[in-house]
Every structure is written in structure tokens, then in C-alpha cells.
Amino acid sequence: MADTARARKLAKRIAQIVASGLEHEVKDPRLAMVTVTDARVTPDLRDATVYYTVFGDHADYASTAAALASATGVLRSRVGQQTGVRFTPTLTFVADTVPDNARRMEELLAKAKEADEEVARLASGAMPAGDADPYRTATDDDEFATDGADAEQFSDADVRRGPQSG
Predict the structure, then answer these.
(1) Rg of the chain taking only CA atoms, in angstroms
(2) Which candidate, 103, 97, 30, places its Cα nearest to that of 62?
(3) Long-range contacts of 120-129 (CB under 8 A, 24+ apart)
């Protein structure tokens, strides 16, 4: 059975080794604006997924993916030398979507805040559609009053006694 704590430690170490390798060993100009954000290792320690972000536009992501694919062998060798595990995990590079998702969430929250402020502004000058106090208040005199024909059916004694079973 695999040790998840060992897999987490190895993943953290792989992220450090890959980031250092990209900075110092791989001399590809397409990898100048790459940041390694995370790494995950499968429980059997055979495969590692390295997540990265790129500062730039969509074209930069495509060129960075190609550069990382070409540098995978060098980086895997470096990981094997510096980790000392029996089987060096294969490296798979995946563009990290968390920053894009976070930016999109921030935009949605800002839009919702603007909508809330607009509703609050409209509500501040609003007037009730009906009476200011739409609820009828009962007084002692009209507490048992009913409308029209029903008023003649019941006497005060019937109201006090309640429903009769019968």
C-alpha cells in the first residue's frame, strides 16, 4: 500500500526540483515566464503531474507547453538524481487554471456587488405599494366580527363554547 505522506513530500520536492531546473538548467527563452504552482504524485509514486502558470497571453501558453514537452527528459533526469527514489516518476505538465478561475470569480463578485448596490439605491427611494401598515389590527369590539350573513348564524355563546361535537 502506498504512503500518502511520502507521496506529498515527493510531490513537494519534485515541484522544487523542476522550478530550480527551469530557472538554472533549461535555457529555453520560452520558459522565462513560467511558475511552477503545484505537483501531485500518484500513490504508487510512478507518475507526477506538475502544474504551472505562464505570465502572458494564450500564445505564450502554447509555446510554453511545447518547450516543457521538449525539456521533460532533462527535468526527469534531474528529478531522478535529486530524489533518490528507485523509480523516477514520469513528468506530465498541466497548465494551472486556478489563477484564471480566481480572476473570473473576482469579476463575478464585483458584478454582484454592483448589482446589490443598484438594488440598495433603488430601494432607498421606494414607497410601499399599499398602505403604510397593511396589517389589520384587532380591537376588543370587532374581535369576533364576521361579514354579512355569517354574523347572524353565531351567537356570543356559540363563539365562547367553541365547536360542538355532534
Answers:
(1) 36
(2) 30
(3) none
Residue 107 to residue 124: CA distance in whole angstroms: 26
Distances (CA, A) of 156 to 143, 160, 163, 164: 12, 6, 13, 14
Collapsed DSSP state (helix, strand, coil) of residue 92 = strand
At 34-64, the pLDDT tens digits run 889 999 999 888 999 999 988 877 778 888 8
Residue type present at position 42: T
Q: What's the Cα-to-Cα distance from 24 to each of 27, 142, 144, 162, rounded to whole Å?
A: 8, 90, 90, 92
**What would the pLDDT profile of 131-150 be if each residue is shown by its tens digit?**
767 777 766 555 555 555 55
